[in-house]
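Internal tracking record. Fields below are filled automatically when a chain is submitted to the structure queue. Please do not edit lines marked as system-generated. If the sequence contains nonstandard residues, flag them in the REMARKS field before resubmitting.
Queue: standard
Priority: normal
Entity type: single polypeptide chain
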Amino acid sequence: MGLKFEFEIKENNEDAKYFQIYSHIRDLILNGALPGGSKLPSIRILSKDLNVNTLTVINAYKMLEKDKLVYKKEGSGTYVLPRDKELIIDDGMFYFEPGEREFGYSYGEDVIDFTSSAPDPGLFPIKDFKKVMDKVLEEDGASAFMYHTSTGYLPLRKALRDYSKSYEIECSEEDIYIVSGAQQGIDIIAKATVKNGDYIFVESPTYSGAVAVFKSRGAKIIGVPLLSDGPGLKELERLVRQFRPSLFYAMPNFQNPTGYTYSERKKKYLLLLAKKYDFMILEDDYAGDLSYTKKDAMPLKVFDLDNRVIYIKSFSKVFMPGLRLAYLIVPEGIRSKTADAKIATDISSSGLMQRVLCNYIKDGILERHTKYLKKELAIRYLEMVRAIRKHIRGGSLIEPKGGLNLWVKLPMGVTSDKLYKRCLQKKVVISPGVFYNRDDMGLFHIRLSFSGVSVEEIWEGVSVIGLEIEDIKSELSN
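SYSTEM-GENERATED OUTPUT FOLLOWS
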């Protein structure tokens, strides 16, 4: 038998009736008055008891379900979700894209691979690299092969201090820590800041490698749904109030996998929430350099006046991924723990590669190469958009105008996992949305990366995807 609620709807209250019902039940759940497993009154009974329309109760229950405070049992009713299951991302096995477990993974020359966001090797600056390498060996000799401090090669840190100013980020070399790629940066920050049982917010969908790191630290992962311009602000604040996260892992510019970019308003509001509710933000700026318009993507760190943002900048997408270099900008309060975590991980990053990158930056080579890369990738981006609009009939996408990926919504009834398997048989590899999110968004979206394929491969591969979609649609209609 269901519960009976003793409260009255206030007619003159500024809050809508459904919101009053939602707030009352939410407070009962959060203060423990309604334990996990409690059955809520049926929609019909509660609407009669409170003298409101059934739609009012439906809306209240939908809000509770959206906040992962209740769940439905088909044919039985609505129940309070046990607190150990709230909004926590599935604890099952993570999906990793092909090649993530083995960096040498290759499909062969006859396969078109839309899963890799690494740049086409043909775009690597091999000649410049050789010149810089020769210069480092000639000038630094054997010292280039020695260990450096765990925080990194000081001349490189100074160069990165100046480099950061091109993004309007003000920092000192003392704020900068060199790490062996963004993945290691995430792991180091997790070791320095995350305790067992902490709530960690991530975007939903998001990069699975980050989720794996946080779960390895015993954290509870809360998925924050994304809109095309960032999280919904009211929903985000509700989740923050409910779970009180210690850290929010975010990719505000050209997010992976969606390509979405937060509006400036939402970036600033997120920082206000971080200050108000006392949590840190780990900003992964993995593709912020790659805007294909005249307007640059501004990092969240630019707006950070209260040292709430830990900034990660990787060079794998604009330099060469195998060199494994990135840097952190670390607020003073966690510098010591970050340094300890770096030492415990690998003592220090490659001294030789740090010196090479230092010269790349100081000689202006990195800036020139980034401009060249943007021009080349912009062509592939535009061709991919054109190919999708021509061949994927009934699908849709929000053009990110930057980054490395396109997040494509599939036509009604076509699922990403089924499409992935069929395309693989035709030697076209895509990233099904379920790699990143197991709800409806993941089921009905695919991610297509364009940086590692030629224009000819883009048109050929998307054509195959479109044909497979049409075959699936035909099967569904029969």
